Amino acid sequence: MKSVFDFDNNLIQSKTDDSRLVWRSVKEEAFGTYGSDALHEEGFCRLTHAERDILRPLNDGEAWLAEQSAGIQVRFQTNSSRIFLRVKLNGRFNMTNMTQIGQCGADLYVYDEKMGFVLHEVARFAFDGDGYEVSLGHFAKKERKERKYILYLPLYIGVKTCEIGLDEDATLCPFGFAHNCRVAIYGTSITQGCGATRPGLAYSNILSRKLDIPVQNYGFSGTAFMEKEMGTFLGERAPDILFVDTEPNAGIDEQMEKNTEAFLDEFFGRCPQTAVVLYSRVLFAMDLYDDYRVRLREYYFSFLKRIARKYAKKGYRIHFADGSHTFPNNFTEYTCDGLHPTDAGMFLLAKSYYKQLMRLKKLYGYDLP
């Protein structure tokens, strides 16, 4: 039977020499792994084991999704002529509205002196396994020199182990961020990255790369209900800025109205100086035909503005952001399924968040470019 690989060699992941490599876990100090406060534990989870245990009886989905590695990145510098990646997953590709690379794969960026960090390669691998070993480096025939890399981990699956293979005699050291403003985003499947074709195009990762800042992704697909316990967990992390973009989940019934104030009280009780931005949701295709959802959106638009005013009067740094203008003109064209953003939609979301960050920089003097 014929296949596309018979005619297009660019789609084939060719076998490359993996001999005489030294394999090292990305959790070693020689790498810089960011995006979670739970990396000292097994796997690449976004909440600790103890936090997941607390959350599980309240919201099992949120606890389970916290085991997925969305937003986690590895930042390292090396002169290796070869870069290999070996990953063990806790599942297999099974989503209907994401690519295999977006759900289970990884992508590698390299620093270019003219353009900044640019895509170098993506992890292409067989569909029938729960792990892969692939070559990501294309410098064997280039001048050997120190280069900076960012590896983005999968968006929608748990990672058990992640190792990078380098030349035996390669140099290796971590590098951090140019700016120290720590941002956290609590949201839904959109925040987690659903619809992005590869991990580097989730809008939290776009923001981190554009501004050279640490951004932690707390997107939990279909389950971001704003429990007060999540307010506690996020407050204990004490980010400089927290975006709350949960309306597509918590705003489909009474959850948002019931939970928002307890969530904020828990959060501000631990970090009263953090700036919080409450986002109303982007427009979906259903806004063109589902009158009930339109009324809900209008109600929660007003509700979030009212909450922001109430807490601002208490002296907190809290603001409202209108998400309904994120996608211009025919907003449906910026989604892959009427709900979740395409890559173009992800860039527009990152642009919207960028504007809010510049607003907060002007107000509070955060360390942002």
Describe what you observe in this structure.
- With 369 residues, the chain is an alpha/beta fold.
- It contains ten helices and 15 strands.
- The strands form three sheets. Strands 2, 3, 5, 6, 8 and 10 form a six-stranded antiparallel β-sheet that branches. A five-stranded parallel β-sheet has the order 12-11-13-14-15, sandwiched between helices. A four-stranded antiparallel β-sheet has the order 1-9-4-7, with no helix packed on it.
- The longest helix has 23 residues.
- It is globular and about 60 Å long.
- The mean pLDDT is 95.
Helical stretch count?
Answer: 10
- Any idea what the shape is? globular
Output the CATH homologous superfamily of the largest domain: SGNH hydrolase
- The CATH class name of the largest domain reads Alpha Beta
Strand content: 15-25%
Poorly predicted residue ranges: none
Structural class by secondary-structure content = alpha/beta
Query: What is the terminal separation in angstroms?
Result: 54 Å
What is the correct CATH architecture of the largest domain?
3-Layer(aba) Sandwich
The H-and-E topology, N to C, reads as: EEHHEEHEEEEEEEHHEHEHHEHEH
Percentage of residues in helical conformation: 25-40%
Main pleated sheet: 6 strands, antiparallel
**Count of distinct strands:** 15
Mean pLDDT: 95
Number of folding domains?
Answer: 2
**CATH topology call of the largest domain:** Rossmann fold
Radius of gyration: 21 Å
